Amino acid sequence: MKVMSSLWGNREGSALLEASVLTPMLFSLAFGVMEFSFYFYQQQLIESGVRDAARYLARVPITTSGATPCTRRLTRPRERHTSCPPALPTRSE
């Protein structure tokens, strides 16, 4: 009985025991927060990509052949369209 009472009053390893109990819970919480934030980051990337694509498609007229003014310009470089970026200069030989 004397051994039990001496162990019950001993506080030397209490910090180690508390740390070993709390460490797995804290790591689970930290990794859960990181995983949750990564999910929201991915969702925001997808939403902004879809929004940009919709904005682009709303500005560019689609023809019956499916070609936009920018892609038609590749086949007919002398045609100029205002919504397309300037063409790359061609070499004159």
Task: Please characterize this protein's 3D structure.
The protein has helices spanning 2-9, 14-59, 69-75. With 93 residues, the chain is mainly alpha-helical. It starts with a helix and ends in an 18-residue tail after the last helix. The relative contact order is 0.05.
Give the helix level as a range of percent.
Answer: 55-70%
N→C terminal distance:
105 Å
Please describe the biggest sheet, giving its number of strands, its sense, and whether it closes into a barrel.
none
The overall pLDDT, averaged over residues, is 76
Main attributes of the structure:
about 65% helix, about 90 residues
List the helices and strands and how they pair.
Layout: H1 2-9, H2 14-59, H3 69-75
Question: Care to give the gist of this entry?
Answer:
This protein is 66% helix and 0% strand. It is mainly alpha-helical.
